[in-house]
Amino acid sequence: MPLGTIALYNKADGIGVITDESGHLIPFSGMETQTTREGQRVLFDVAGEKATNVTAVR
Predict the structure, then answer these.
(1) HSE (CB half, 13 Å, CA atoms) of 5?
(2) Which of 19, 32, 37, 40 is surrounded by the most beta carbons within 10 Å?
(3) Verdict on whether the full-model pTM lies above 0.85
(4) Which CB contacts under 8 angstroms, 24+ apart, belong to 25-31?
């Protein structure tokens, strides 16, 4: 699972963007995550062009 940081989350639309360790931007849905807090470090899977199974790193 790649490691990244939640760069942006739009509560109104329920979507956000994760920046991975290489600096790539990967969109995700708030329905597929444990956290939506901007700046939170996360582990995630990639399915196509989207991040899924977003899990907070403590």
Answers:
(1) 6
(2) 40
(3) yes
(4) 26/50, 26/51, 27/51, 28/52, 28/54
State how far the Cα of 38 lies from the Cα of 48, in Å rounded to an integer. 23
Q: Which two tokens stand for residue 41?
A: 């470090």
Q: Would you call 38 helix, strand, or coil by DSSP? A: coil
Beta bridge partners of 47: 50
Task: For residue 37, give both structure tokens.
Answer: 């807090």
Confidence (pLDDT) at 45: 96
User: Residue 39 — very low, low, confident or very high, per pLDDT cuts 50/70/90?
Assistant: very high
Over residues 5-27, the mean pLDDT reads: 96
Closest CA to 33 of 58, 22, 9: 9
